[in-house]
Design a protein that fits this description.
With 332 residues, the chain is of the alpha/beta class. It has two domains: 6-155, Rossmann fold (3-Layer(aba) Sandwich); 157-327, Lactate dehydrogenase/glycoside hydrolase, family 4, C-terminal (L-2-Hydroxyisocaproate Dehydrogenase, Chain A, domain 2). It is 43% helix and 20% strand. The protein is globular, with a radius of gyration of 19 Å. Residues 6-153 form the Lactate/malate dehydrogenase N-terminal domain.
Length: 332
């Protein structure tokens, strides 16, 4: 029996990330090679023509799994009946702008999109926020979409997670698929903490810890962390544009693992609603190690946390608490 199509919303769909993401979804990279999809693409009115061009290309690519395309500048039409929402659209920080300016622009965008999802999305819609500040945008969305379960609202730190895997694989000259269980703790910002304390590598003689194989704590606690934290800026410097292909690919990874499950013994990083695990203040959207089964994520519990990690985890939580206060001040 053929499966019913899943409706997937991509906001900001005419932008760079959207342009990289929609063909991946249409190819089955996000939801699996046997899952038909109907794409809902939303963008702002000035991008309407460009959005229509993306729709034409999707039709021209003749993707077998793509069962329909909605391309619109109307938020209600875009959100109607969607099962998965990937929120890529947001207001980017421009030169000379204060954080508060960016925050207030994004607060108003996420407030209106949250209301539309609240009223028109399918029940149990899963939401992934990509646009920065991703953790706090997700929190605002949660605030204005109270009927969407809090466990269904997440933000993207899988890009940072994948960057960390990539750095370890390059350093050790191993296949990236043999590295697992790196963790991104906290905010999708330069305070995030990429942690390899629990990460392992598959070797011919069994699984070994990354720390043992790298055997250079100065690198692991210094250059490795800053490289992952600053990778986005390095890509902007090189490409003169922010990361799009890698962001789109990691958004697919995030949703695929969430919907289809993580491999046994493997955990991934997702920005999720904190329940107070690891002494992270409850009520923040914070990146934790999670496993997924049956469409639900669960925070991995009981990992030992050393003093170095504790400080890093607390610092990024502090930044998120400040961001939350700033966002709420924009609401009043």
């Amino acid at each position: 029996m053929a499966k019913d199509p899943v409706r997937v919303l991509v906001t900001g769909a005419a932008g760079q990330i959207g342009y990289a993401l929609v063909p991946m979804i249409a190819r089955g990279i996000m939801l699996g090679p046997d899952q038909p999809v109907i794409l809902h693409m939303l963008d702002i009115p000035p991008a309407a023509e460009s959005l229509n061009g993306v729709k034409m290309e999707l039709i021209d690519a003749a993707f077998p799994l793509l069962k329909g395309v909605v391309a619109t500048t109307d938020v209600v039409e875009a959100c109607t009946g969607v099962n998965v929402a990937v929120m890529v659209g947001g207001f980017p920080r421009k030169e000379g702008m204060e954080r508060k300016d960016v925050m207030s622009k994004n607060v108003s965008i996420y407030k209106s999109q949250a209301s539309a999802l609240e009223k028109h999305a399918a029940p149990n819609c899963k939401v992934l926020v990509v646009a920065n500040p991703a953790n706090t945008n997700a929190l605002i969305l949660k605030e204005f979409a109270p009927s969407i379960p809090e466990k269904n609202i997440t933000c993207l730190t899988r890009l940072d997670h994948n960057r960390a895997l990539g750095q370890v694989s390059e350093r050790l000259n191993v296949q990236v698929s043999d590295v697992k269980n790196v963790i991104i703790w906290g905010n999708h910002s330069s305070t995030q903490y990429p942690d390899v304390s629990h990460a392992t590598v598959k070797t011919p003689s069994g699984e070994k810890s990354v720390r043992e194989l790298v055997s250079n704590d100065d690198w692991l606690r210094g250059e490795f962390i800053t490289t992952v934290q600053q990778r986005g800026a390095a890509i902007i410097k090189a490409r003169k544009l922010s990361s799009a292909l890698s962001a789109a690919s990691s958004a697919c990874d995030h949703i695929r693992d969430w919907v289809l499950g993580t491999p046994e013994g493997t955990y991934v990083s997702m920005g999720v609603y904190s329940d107070g695990s690891y002494n992270v203040p409850a009520g923040l959207i914070y990146s934790f190690p999670v496993t997924c089964r049956n469409g639900e994520w669960t925070i991995v519990q009981g990992l030992p946390i050393d003093e170095f990690s504790r400080k890093k985890m607390d610092a990024t939580a502090e930044e998120l608490t400040e961001e939350k206060a700033l966002a709420y001040s924009c609401l009043s």
